[in-house]
Amino acid sequence: MTGRVILGVSGASGAALALDCARVLSRLGAKVDLVLSPMAERTLALEIGPEARSTLVGLAHRLHPVIDLGADIASGSCPVAGMIVAPCSMRSLAAIAHGLDDNLLTRTASVQLKERRPLVLLAREAPLTLAHLRNMTAVTEMGAVVMPPVPAFYLRPETTAQITAQIAARAVDLLRLGLPQAQAWTPEPKGNTP
């Protein structure tokens, strides 16, 4: 049994990443504790469609209101395997970097850091300001992994769905829950050289 994983979804572009992370976690047998920001709900509808929220919630074990700072996952005593924020807005990144536990998403991210559990942030913005870069440095120094959702072009993806699925699988792999889910790069065999 893989256990529980928190999936935080903030309002940055890249809502498909949240769905794909939930799908990978579901395949692994993880129980997903889902936290959606208000802007995440809006972005899911804008980028995927009106059914996106219900699809995502259907993949989760539990949905927690973002305002519920009394949820069990807001405490370090709640046993979870880690957390992914997909996508992670610059607002959420800044709050996590500065310990502003003002909602359940940022609080649970802080809990992962203080408990030394995996925290993977799919930080989504371009170009980056100096504030963004400093916040990324700060969370990295605290133990988080900042993983901008960069396509694995070497796999020659043909669709956006293939790109987001690979990024999500790599993010889940960073939690080290079981066998790797992402497609690995394999170099072409070199010819025999004297």
From TrEMBL:
Q: Which domain of life is it from?
A: Bacteria
Catalysis: reaction(s): dimethylallyl phosphate + FMNH2 = prenylated FMNH2 + phosphate
Residues the record lists as binding dimethylallyl phosphate: Y154, R170
Identify the keywords attached in UniProt to this record, alphabetized: Flavoprotein, FMN, Prenyltransferase, Transferase
Pfam families in alphabetical order: Flavoprotein
* Annotated ranges, domain Flavoprotein: 4-168
> Which Gene Ontology MF annotations are present?
flavin prenyltransferase activity
Q: In the Enzyme Commission scheme, what number(s) does this protein have?
A: 2.5.1.129
Q: Where does FMN bind?
A: G11, A12, S13, S37, S89, M90, R91, S92, R124
The UniProt function text for this chain reads: Flavin prenyltransferase that catalyzes the synthesis of the prenylated FMN cofactor (prenyl-FMN) for 4-hydroxy-3-polyprenylbenzoic acid decarboxylase UbiD. The prenyltransferase is metal-independent and links a dimethylallyl moiety from dimethylallyl monophosphate (DMAP) to the flavin N5 and C6 atoms of FMN.
Fetch the NCBIfam families from UniProt.
PRK06029.1, ubiX_pad
Q: Record's family?
A: Belongs to the UbiX/PAD1 family.
Q: What is this protein called?
A: Flavin prenyltransferase UbiX
| Organism whose genome encodes this protein | Aliigemmobacter aestuarii
Gene that encodes the chain = ubiX
